[in-house]
Amino acid sequence: MLAGCDKIATTAGARQAFLGAEDLTYRVNRLLTARDALAPQFTGADISRIFRSNGTAMPGSPDYARLLEGNFADWRLQVGGLVARPLAISLDQLKALPQRTQITRHDCVEGWSAIGQWTGPVLGPILQFAGLSSAARYIVFHCYDDFGGATYYESIDLVDAFHPQTILAWALNNQPLPVPNGAPVRLRVERQLGYKHAKYLRAIEAVASLDAIGGGKGGFWEDSSDYAWYAGI
Question: Is the pTM of this model over 0.85?
Fold first, then answer.
């Protein structure tokens, strides 16, 4: 019976039904949940002793190796796409912006969780400073790590992009972000599951559609394994 269910799940009709359910979940969540509703926050006493890594622990690209060797002095976060003023932000410039520190729980799709303290600037003001176009609908995060030759990326809508807890984190537990956890900078989008929190950020791109990015489904795991694009928790 289980084998039969597996076969059904891989049919085109079943896949369309699942995608329709995911879209309904997303729309209902946006309808019923306040846009600025906060994910739970914790105290220093709740911080996990070990904050494990998942996915890539060390990007294999020569560009990343060179940046790491130079302690990310030459790293620049490109902010482009549908913006009036494209940006190239250094790590020092990122740290000089107004910062937010938050202690939140990271929930992995594989079933584990950990609580950590993250520090970094809120994403929304950076997008505003870049002159985000009214035509933009999604924010895409391009990364340095890859899986089997496919570069990792993720995307979120503007509601999450401008959420007060969505930050570009450069510190974990008052220390510079370790490489396994996404150094020099990773996304924290606290109201979604862990695979949406893109590590090893290289560029941020504002787009009107996700169709031409990667496989067109909005993220590496969405393209390769049919993960839900909206992974709200």
Answer: yes
